[in-house]
Amino acid sequence: MMSNLPNCPTCNSPYTYEAGGLFVCPECGHEWTLESEAERNSEDNKTIKDANGNVLNDGDSVTVIKDLKVKGSSSVIKIGTKVKNIRLIDGDHDIDCKIDGFGAMQLKSEFVKKI
């Protein structure tokens, strides 16, 4: 039997269950209602902020505020690296971009500041 319960909005687990009007994720322990999930999604889509609290938009330019190790490589993206024409995406790494000398990359908004 297939259930129509939503996946967990935190870890995307398909094993959610309903308990007393709440949806519960057995993998990460997150509890939510459909209303709270809809509110969270509408807020997240509108407000991705940089390290200083400035709202970021598609096409903005940002500067990296700390040295970032590149996963799977021995190279580092140095502090002060400028990144042009960012694209905002859903997920833990919420900025999709191309960095000169590194290529396509995803960054966390907490490690950049808007130029």
TrEMBL record:
Domain Protein YjdM N-terminal span(s) in chain numbering: 5-33
Coiled-coil spans in chain: none
Protein YjdM C-terminal domain segment(s): 48-114
Annotated protein name in UniProt: Protein PhnA
A Pfam family annotated for this UniProt entry: Zn_Ribbon_YjdM
Organism: Paenibacillus eucommiae
Annotated family: Belongs to the YjdM family.
